[in-house]
Hints:
Blueprint: H1 5-15, E1 45-49, E2 55-62, H2 89-101, E3 107-111, H3 118-135, E4 141-145, H4 152-161, E5 164-166, H5 174-180, H6 186-204, E6 221-227, H7 234-248, E7 252-257, H8 274-290, H9 295-299, H10 313-320, E8 327-328, H11 334-337, H12 345-354, H13 362-368, H14 372-375, E9 379-380, H15 395-399
Parallel strand pairs: 2-3, 3-4, 4-5, 5-6, 6-7, 8-9
Antiparallel strand pairs: 1-2
Helix pairs in contact: 2-3, 3-4, 4-6, 7-8
Amino acid sequence: MRRTLQEKLAILADAAKYDASCASSGTTRRDSRDGGLGSAGGSGICHAYTPDGRCISLLKILMTNFCIYDCAYCINRVSSGVERARFSPEEVVTLTLEFYRRNYIEGLFLSSGIIRSPDDTMEDMVRIARTLRRDHGFKGYIHLKTIPEASQDLIDAAGLYADRLSVNIELPRDSSTRALAPQKKPETIRAAMAAVRLKRQESSEKSHSGKRAARFAPAGQSTQMIVGADAANDRDILTTATRLYTGYKLNRVYYSAFSPIPDASVALPLVKPPLMREHRLYQADWLLRFYGFDVDEITSTAPSGDLDLDVDPKLAWAIANRGLFPIDINRADRNTLLRVPGFGTRTVSRILTARRSGALRYGDLIRIGARMGVAKPFVTVPDWSPGALTDRDDLRARFATPPKQLSLF
């Protein structure tokens, strides 16, 4: 059956929704005012952020959802009965340019199933990026999902045309990857990530002549981890993420909630509500990267090593460590302030600036932007003290999402 371009777009844009890593923050600023088409400073569309903070739209598609691999957790695995489609490289180029000309998008996020071989698939993806850049002067953002089993030459070529590369780590545990994705090797995945890191490092260094090497994936690399397809707890997941950030200098680890696939040949566990678990993992990831927490602190609030689904990870930690609170807002240092529930990094910066002019009071914290409805059991200022509120037995219940009666009809 020969499909129209519109029919292919409907299938492959929908299939791309399982690819989570499409943020574009960190890329170099480029625009087309001096020639070319598109800019990176500024059915199948996702949103991302540029270095200057603007939200932009990306065409987010799979080149194909045909795949020769049989990963148990993937809807597009070879044994799946999903409807299939495939774009030619020329069709992807045409779609990207036409969507841009209609002001629908400012860039491309491209992933793919594996067809024929990893090298053949990766070669087509590189061809798409190269054609956009060289033949059409496209200066918009391009993110390519790299195929780790492809040759290093192809991955190196991809980094010359893409702003960001990503290599999927797949699952938190190597043993799970081997069991559920037998055609993929954790060692190969990590080797590909290490190679991208080294190439990025090389591109930032000057040669003996003082010239820099050609830019290579200037917006860095990210990865995607599927959560809920194996029995890994949240401590396992966040520990793996921390190692990836440290070892490969990733910009971001994306957590993709697994939902059971109706015709899966392997029975997979669904341990927790997937979307809420994904949300809590993102919150915990933020605490690890920007708030000075470590994995053991965040995951020690429950014996299972899992995050609390009813309250956010910082609040859960504060409730479990009430002996450290309340803190004096006018005396605490930055690191201590960052651990107060309801205080973000901007709020803390504003507090530190504002208190140079005098002691802060409760109303000042509200004006600064602190979420005092959450913070007030944990802080003290001249006109507010939580008293016994900090130690109340029902403190967690005051913040937990109340249960809802489901409709019977």
